[in-house]
Specification:
Number of strands: 10
Shape: globular
Helix content: under 10%
Largest sheet: 2 strands, antiparallel
Strand order of the largest sheet: 1-8
Number of helices: 2
Radius of gyration: 26 Å
Oligomer: single chain
Order of helices and strands: EEEHEEEEEHEE
Strand content: 25-35%
Amino acid sequence: AVPTPTPTAVPTPTPTVAPTPTPIAVPTIGTNPVFDNELNLFKGWNFISVPKKLASSCDTAGELFAGVDTAGTPILSFDAKTNQWIRVTSSTLISPLDAYWIYANGTYRLTPSFDTAPAVPVVKSVYVGWNAVGISAENSMTAKDAFNGVNWRTFSLWDAANQRTGTVYNNGGS
Protein backbone atom coordinates (compact mmCIF):
# COMPACT_ATOMS: atom_id res chain seq x y z
CA ALA A 1 0.00 0.00 0.00
CA VAL A 2 1.12 3.43 -0.84
CA PRO A 3 1.12 5.73 2.17
CA THR A 4 -1.16 8.74 1.89
CA PRO A 5 0.60 11.92 2.84
CA THR A 6 -0.90 13.82 5.73
CA PRO A 7 -1.55 17.44 4.75
CA THR A 8 0.64 19.89 6.66
CA ALA A 9 -1.21 22.79 8.15
CA VAL A 10 -0.05 26.11 6.79
CA PRO A 11 0.29 28.55 9.67
CA THR A 12 -1.78 31.69 9.36
CA PRO A 13 0.40 34.69 9.99
CA THR A 14 -0.58 36.72 13.03
CA PRO A 15 -0.96 40.35 12.10
CA THR A 16 1.55 42.62 13.79
CA VAL A 17 -0.11 45.42 15.66
CA ALA A 18 1.97 48.50 16.22
CA PRO A 19 1.77 49.61 19.83
CA THR A 20 0.01 52.89 20.45
CA PRO A 21 2.50 55.30 21.95
CA THR A 22 1.63 56.59 25.39
CA PRO A 23 1.52 60.35 25.39
CA ILE A 24 4.11 61.92 27.67
CA ALA A 25 3.09 65.04 29.54
CA VAL A 26 5.44 67.87 28.70
CA PRO A 27 5.61 70.33 31.57
CA THR A 28 4.21 73.71 30.65
CA ILE A 29 5.24 76.74 32.62
CA GLY A 30 2.43 79.18 33.21
CA THR A 31 -1.28 78.66 33.11
CA ASN A 32 -2.32 81.63 31.00
CA PRO A 33 -1.80 81.40 27.25
CA VAL A 34 -0.77 85.07 27.28
CA PHE A 35 0.67 87.11 30.14
CA ASP A 36 -1.99 89.68 31.00
CA ASN A 37 0.27 92.19 32.79
CA GLU A 38 -1.06 91.10 36.17
CA LEU A 39 0.45 89.17 39.04
CA ASN A 40 -2.22 87.42 41.06
CA LEU A 41 -1.40 86.61 44.66
CA PHE A 42 -3.48 84.04 46.50
CA LYS A 43 -3.98 83.93 50.25
CA GLY A 44 -0.96 82.09 51.61
CA TRP A 45 2.40 81.47 49.97
CA ASN A 46 3.04 82.58 46.39
CA PHE A 47 6.08 81.81 44.24
CA ILE A 48 6.31 84.54 41.63
CA SER A 49 8.58 86.20 39.10
CA VAL A 50 8.17 88.93 36.51
CA PRO A 51 8.53 88.09 32.80
CA LYS A 52 10.35 91.27 31.83
CA LYS A 53 12.11 94.33 33.22
CA LEU A 54 9.93 96.51 35.41
CA ALA A 55 9.62 100.27 34.94
CA SER A 56 11.82 102.23 37.33
CA SER A 57 8.68 103.46 39.12
CA CYS A 58 7.90 99.96 40.43
CA ASP A 59 11.09 97.90 40.19
CA THR A 60 11.71 97.42 43.92
CA ALA A 61 9.96 95.05 46.30
CA GLY A 62 8.64 98.02 48.27
CA GLU A 63 7.05 99.53 45.16
CA LEU A 64 5.78 96.31 43.56
CA PHE A 65 4.36 94.82 46.75
CA ALA A 66 3.08 98.09 48.29
CA GLY A 67 -0.27 97.39 49.90
CA VAL A 68 0.22 93.62 50.18
CA ASP A 69 -0.37 92.47 53.76
CA THR A 70 2.31 89.84 54.36
CA ALA A 71 1.23 89.35 57.99
CA GLY A 72 4.75 90.32 58.99
CA THR A 73 6.25 87.42 57.05
CA PRO A 74 9.42 88.34 55.14
CA ILE A 75 9.57 88.03 51.37
CA LEU A 76 12.31 85.58 50.38
CA SER A 77 14.48 84.73 47.41
CA PHE A 78 17.02 81.94 47.11
CA ASP A 79 20.67 82.40 46.19
CA ALA A 80 21.68 79.09 44.62
CA LYS A 81 25.35 80.11 44.44
CA THR A 82 25.60 80.36 48.23
CA ASN A 83 22.71 77.97 48.94
CA GLN A 84 21.15 80.64 51.18
CA TRP A 85 17.70 82.15 51.60
CA ILE A 86 17.82 85.92 51.18
CA ARG A 87 15.43 88.24 52.97
CA VAL A 88 14.03 90.67 50.42
CA THR A 89 13.97 94.29 51.63
CA SER A 90 11.84 97.14 50.34
CA SER A 91 14.84 98.35 48.27
CA THR A 92 15.54 94.94 46.64
CA LEU A 93 15.33 95.23 42.84
CA ILE A 94 12.81 92.77 41.36
CA SER A 95 14.37 91.24 38.25
CA PRO A 96 13.17 88.91 35.50
CA LEU A 97 14.21 85.26 36.00
CA ASP A 98 14.53 85.79 39.76
CA ALA A 99 11.79 84.12 41.78
CA TYR A 100 10.35 85.26 45.08
CA TRP A 101 8.35 83.64 47.87
CA ILE A 102 5.77 86.07 49.24
CA TYR A 103 3.10 85.37 51.83
CA ALA A 104 -0.16 87.25 51.22
CA ASN A 105 -2.74 87.59 53.97
CA GLY A 106 -5.47 87.85 51.32
CA THR A 107 -5.82 87.83 47.55
CA TYR A 108 -4.23 90.61 45.51
CA ARG A 109 -4.00 91.58 41.86
CA LEU A 110 -0.80 93.50 41.14
CA THR A 111 -0.53 95.44 37.90
CA PRO A 112 3.14 96.32 37.50
CA SER A 113 4.40 98.74 34.88
CA PHE A 114 7.08 97.44 32.58
CA ASP A 115 10.04 99.17 31.02
CA THR A 116 9.15 100.38 27.53
CA ALA A 117 12.72 100.23 26.19
CA PRO A 118 13.42 97.40 23.74
CA ALA A 119 13.82 94.17 25.65
CA VAL A 120 17.34 92.94 26.24
CA PRO A 121 17.68 89.17 26.70
CA VAL A 122 17.94 88.29 30.39
CA VAL A 123 20.50 85.75 31.58
CA LYS A 124 20.59 83.95 34.92
CA SER A 125 23.32 81.64 36.16
CA VAL A 126 22.15 78.35 37.59
CA TYR A 127 24.16 76.19 39.94
CA VAL A 128 24.30 72.54 40.94
CA GLY A 129 21.47 71.91 43.38
CA TRP A 130 18.22 73.78 43.83
CA ASN A 131 17.62 77.03 41.96
CA ALA A 132 14.61 79.35 42.21
CA VAL A 133 13.99 80.47 38.65
CA GLY A 134 11.21 82.37 36.94
CA ILE A 135 10.76 82.62 33.20
CA SER A 136 11.19 85.62 30.97
CA ALA A 137 8.28 85.02 28.63
CA GLU A 138 4.85 86.44 28.12
CA ASN A 139 3.38 83.17 26.81
CA SER A 140 3.19 79.71 28.33
CA MET A 141 5.92 77.37 27.13
CA THR A 142 7.26 73.91 27.76
CA ALA A 143 9.94 73.43 30.39
CA LYS A 144 12.16 72.08 27.60
CA ASP A 145 11.93 75.42 25.79
CA ALA A 146 12.15 77.55 28.93
CA PHE A 147 15.24 75.78 30.20
CA ASN A 148 16.87 75.04 26.85
CA GLY A 149 20.57 74.40 27.39
CA VAL A 150 20.19 73.68 31.11
CA ASN A 151 20.70 70.12 32.31
CA TRP A 152 17.89 69.99 34.86
CA ARG A 153 16.76 66.91 36.73
CA THR A 154 13.70 67.90 38.77
CA PHE A 155 11.20 70.61 38.00
CA SER A 156 8.40 71.43 40.40
CA LEU A 157 5.46 73.80 40.11
CA TRP A 158 3.95 75.61 43.11
CA ASP A 159 0.15 75.66 43.20
CA ALA A 160 -0.55 78.86 45.15
CA ALA A 161 -4.32 78.48 44.85
CA ASN A 162 -4.18 75.15 46.72
CA GLN A 163 -1.04 75.90 48.77
CA ARG A 164 0.86 72.81 47.71
CA THR A 165 3.50 71.59 45.32
CA GLY A 166 1.94 70.88 41.98
CA THR A 167 3.28 68.49 39.42
CA VAL A 168 6.89 67.43 39.85
CA TYR A 169 8.79 66.45 36.71
CA ASN A 170 11.84 64.21 36.88
CA ASN A 171 13.81 63.88 33.71
CA GLY A 172 16.73 65.29 31.79
CA GLY A 173 14.98 68.24 30.25
CA SER A 174 11.84 67.34 28.33
